[in-house]
Amino acid sequence: MRLLSASIVSILFRLLQGGRSRGKAAAVAVALVLPGLAACSSASPARSPAAASPSRSAGVTSTAAPSLSAGSDLCAVVPSSTVTASFGGSVTAAQPAAFLGNPSCTYSVKASNLGVDGGIQVADMVIWKAPNYQVAKQTGLTGGDVDVTGVGDDAYYDPNNTGLVFHKGDTVYFVLAAFKAPVGVVLDAARMKADVVALAKTIAGSL
User: Fold this and answer.
1) How buried is residue 55: exposed, middle or buried, by Cβ count under 10 Å (0-12/13-18/19+)?
2) What pLDDT, in 10s, does the model give residues 149-200?
3) Residues 23, 12: Cα–Cα separation, whole Å
4) What are the boundaries of each domain within the chain?
């Protein structure tokens, strides 16, 4: 399952605007991501019992993350147990991939804390640095994103796309949760955010 969502496009576009690459570079980034979006839109995550919610109380122990390069197996750096510690349920599949030159991993989650199945995507944005992050954040805050404390050196959350971006030094990570409720059911937005924050905090703590 690939979670190349519009939120990633948005974040990449913001970062490109803040760096030296503008115009054509931004268009290239969006063009590269859109095929993934089309593939994703045709395959919605399986629906099952519990989805993403936070167990902030569940302490997750992580070892220091090894240095990463594009194409590295981020699934080994952020194991499935780290995802389930925050979202509950079980991870039925974890797929590593190089996303626009950045290591990423997509996790399929069954019976999460939210009561539905879904997916998580974690990306180590190795092509970006702290200044790019700051530009993306300032743009995001004007569009409804919110500050998050206690994750890395700084973090912000996008409630519309249920994704969080944080930086620790010059390391920038993106954590996205994609869970879809059955018709007539509304997912708990607060729990969703808390789970995303819990996972991001664990990842940041291992860096």
Assistant:
1) middle
2) 999 999 999 999 999 999 999 999 999 999 988 888 889 999 999 999 999 9
3) 13
4) 45-130+142-205
